[in-house]
Amino acid sequence: MTVSLPPDFVLVHGPEPLPPALKRPVIAIGNFDGVHRGHQAVFAAARTMAAEAGGPALALTFEPHPRTFFNPATAPFRLTPAAEKLRRIAESGLQGAIVLDFDAALAAMEAEDFVREVLVGRYGVAGVAVGFDFHFGRQRAGSPAFLKEAGERHGFAVTVVEPMRDENDAISSTAVRRALASGQVGHAAHMLGRPFAVTAEVIHGDKRGRTIGFPTANLALPQDLELAFGIYAVRAMTPAGRFDGVANYGRRPTFDNGRALLEVHLFDFSGDLYGQSIEVEFHAYIRPELKFDGIDALVAQIRADAQQAREVLERDPIRLPRNPLGESPSYSK
After folding, report:
1. Which helix (H) or strand (E) element contains residue 299?
2. How many of the other CB atoms lie within 10 Å of CB of 223?
3. Confidence of residue 325 (pLDDT cuts 50, 70, 90)
């Protein structure tokens, strides 16, 4: 997935130096997967510190996610793949982002060396903002308390942002994943500050949907996606515009019980979306995926699901931003 970033948003990779306009920055540091409300609070703290210091506010993040580096087989699925994460960071009011390669050298770097060589030596920070649970350096030895003490020694300010809460959960990427895995997309949206969304290319399917009056756009999502199988009320941004719809995420037990797919039926739309990318927001979980005895029972249930999705979305004021992903309309029938 590729995204367009604002022309004034500066992206710095690896050991590249900061451009002169970004000298003496305040840097928000974190993995920022999901760019949820807790992360936004860290960005806000960095912006406030930067305004007081008279300099820019940047994000510093890592790719791949450290847990992917250390344990690729058990790493959590990404709420926001790298490009999507940068797009969300760019929308947060920061002037730029630094992306450090999380490799063996960075994993082995002592916390003090990271402060001295990277934060102070390479970037000349005026300040740093982190979340309450941020750790860095070899064996995660660098805690927020360590960072505060290091800031006093090296002459930069440090703000540690306390946890935000939503319902009974402290907002975190883990809590968002847990909500999605149980179908609680509304709770996930509250923590993210927006509905959870995926972006993928529309692929050819078995075309059963059009034979029963419900053509679908089929999307193959990462197989590590921890989203509950079932029926959802969704909104989609397509190259032809925004559309409400109903979607099934699962293995289609009535037919083949195959690879998990997202099948999206868009209301009041006709066209061809094959090969185009669409963004799908999940607004409500309607029911779990079920196996039906025959086509007639399945079609009746789809009609009921579609009606329920329409009613849910009519009450839901949240809309996708007006940023079409392409130029020509497309839709899989």
Report:
1. helix 295-315
2. 8
3. very low
φ/ψ (deg, to 5) at 57: -115, 130
- Six token digits for residue 214: 């419900």
* CB 28 within 8 Å of CB 129: yes
Interval 10-57: pLDDT, tens: 999 988 999 999 999 999 999 999 999 999 999 999 999 999 999 999
Phi and psi for 290 in degrees, rounded to 5? -130, 160
H or E, element range at 230: strand 230-238
Which tokens in the block code for residue 45? Answer: 């703290």
Distance CA 303, CA 48 (A): 51
User: Residue 207: what pLDDT?
Assistant: 62
pLDDT tens-digit series, residues 55-71:
999 999 999 988 888 88
Backbone dihedral region for residue 305 (phi beyond 0: left; psi -120 to 50: alpha; all else: beta): alpha
The identity of residue 205, as a single letter, is: G
Report the DSSP pairing between strands 197-203 and 241-250.
Answer: unpaired
